Amino acid sequence: MSIHGISSSATAHARPPGAPLMWRRSRVDFTYPPLASIDPMREGLSDVPGVVVVWNAARADADEPAGRCLYVGQTCDLAAAVGLLRDDPALAAAQGDDLRVTWAPIGIAHRPGVVAYLRDMLNPKVAECALDVHWPVRPDARPVPVPLPS
Q1: Average confidence (pLDDT) per 10 residues, the chain, 150 residues
Q2: How many CB atoms lie within 10 A of CB 24?
Q3: Predicted pLDDT at 111
Q4: Does the pTM of the predicted model rise above 0.90?
Q5: 55 near 65, Cβ under 8 Å?
Q6: How distant, in Å, are the alpha carbons of 4, 129, 143 from that of 135?
Q7: Second label for 2, Cα 20 to 30 Å away, from 44, 49, 102, 109?
Q8: For strand 50-56 and strand 6-7, is the pairing parallel, antiparallel, or unpaired?
Q9: Which of 102, 119, 109 is nearest to 18 (CA)?
Q10: pLDDT for the residue numbered 53
């Protein structure tokens, strides 16, 4: 199955950021899903590598991550990342609010640079969380520009 014309096959996971990159939405209703209720298995996120963006959508449009960005990180398994993000103490403080998540499958060669770029552009309020312990971003990663989630 594909969303927005992008295959969810293994070849899509290694796509360089120069190729069309689309921030994923829920397969169920095509909105950016709440972090608390996303079903990683239903979304097909198991063993999918990529980049995640978490933001607070309270008091604003849930489809605008820029400006209220809480966290940007990388992972080799987006399903595991969702669990770590839900349980993270830094993000748990904002759990009462409307936390939303989006992701983009990105191969290992480009992930650190994409995260560095997104952190520069979105200025997330949480600089480090449990996801960084498992999948750290090199501090010397050279930013790789990609379209911002919108």
Answers
A1: 30 48 80 86 90 80 64 94 90 73 91 94 88 87 90
A2: 25
A3: 93
A4: no
A5: yes
A6: 27, 10, 17
A7: 109
A8: unpaired
A9: 109
A10: 94
Alpha carbons 73 and 126: distance in angstroms, whole number:
10
Instruction: Measure the CA–CA gap between 75 and 51, rounded to whole angstroms.
Output: 6
The Cα–Cα gap between 102 and 115 comes to 13
CA distances, 122 to each of 29, 36, 52 (Å): 25, 22, 12
Amino acid 113: pLDDT? 95
Token look-up 């120069």 returns 18
Alpha-carbon distance of 81 to 24, in angstroms, equals: 15
Where would I find the H helices in the chain?
Answer: 10-13, 78-87, 89-92, 111-122, 130-134
d(C-alpha 116, C-alpha 17), whole Å: 13
Residue 113: partners with Cβ closer than 8 Å, 6 or more residues away: 17, 141, 142, 143, 144
